[in-house]
């Protein structure tokens, strides 16, 4: 019997250094899916399995960025509408596409970047805070519309779509928005019916066809996550012929695909 082990990314870094590919463009992975489908949780699982979570930000070989950081600044009138649940945050126009594209291109060029931090309670980016993204080997970029904009979609080396049914997503979104995003039940349900659900059907769901891998049930799908982690590991090691699995006694074996 074989199980998949947590992967030591230092091997991957050594491989890349030995082969003179240090400093080259990171492997950029887009992770799309409806609201509360589990995009962030899937990214977290991938990072955990690549041994990245307990590491200092500056040392990480895998980093995750959210499309939420690229919500555009609203006008005063739009902020009033947002407070009444009358602004459509699920429409592509709610995002600063230019900033998103420039940032991803900088990341692909191996540059250190400052990314806005989004405040869901006030519908704005924090004025006094940014998140530093240090050059990494793998960059995950997750969000509802990361495959919508062709210029951005074409930058990804791998595209994942987290496909969780809409009842489950709504059941997860309600408590999250009340507890973490400062909303009340009526607001959450009105916003969902008026904007979130129609925009999912018009803008997000049609982008599933661009995905290389569709992950049904999100983070519950440990088989899919393990396969993706192995694929990333293979790419970083320049190994396109096999996946590494480890037997219960710890010896590694390679299984041809
Ligand atoms: N497999 C799961 N089982 C139970 N709860 C989950 C699962 N995946 C995500 N959640 C919860 O659902 C909510 C939304 O998940 P999240 O990963 O943030 O979704 P997204 O990034 O797609 O909006 C969070 O509160 C998270 O803890
Ligand atoms: N001020 C805002 C900005 C965005 N939203 C909602 O967030 C959802 C996207 O984030 P997920 O983590 O759920 O992917 C999106 O559906 C927006 O409706 C918001 O409520 N307020």
Give a description of the structure.
GO terms for molecular function: kinase activity. Its EC number is 2.7.1.48. Belongs to the uridine kinase family. By secondary structure, the chain is α/β, with parallel strands linked by helices. The chain has a single domain, classed as P-loop containing nucleotide triphosphate hydrolases (Rossmann fold). 37% of the residues lie in helices and 22% in strands. The chain is built from eight helices and ten strands. The protein has helices at 9-18, 39-49, 76-83, 97-108, 150-153, 166-179, 185-204, 222-237; strands at residues 2-3, 27-33, 62-66, 113-119, 124-133, 138-142, 158-163, 213-216, 242-247, 252-256. The strands form three sheets. A five-stranded parallel beta sheet has the order 3-6-2-7-8, with helices on one face. Helix 2 packs across helix 8 (222-237) and helix 6 packs across helix 7 (185-204). Residues 33, 35-41, 172, 176, 218-220 line the site of adenosine-5'-diphosphate.
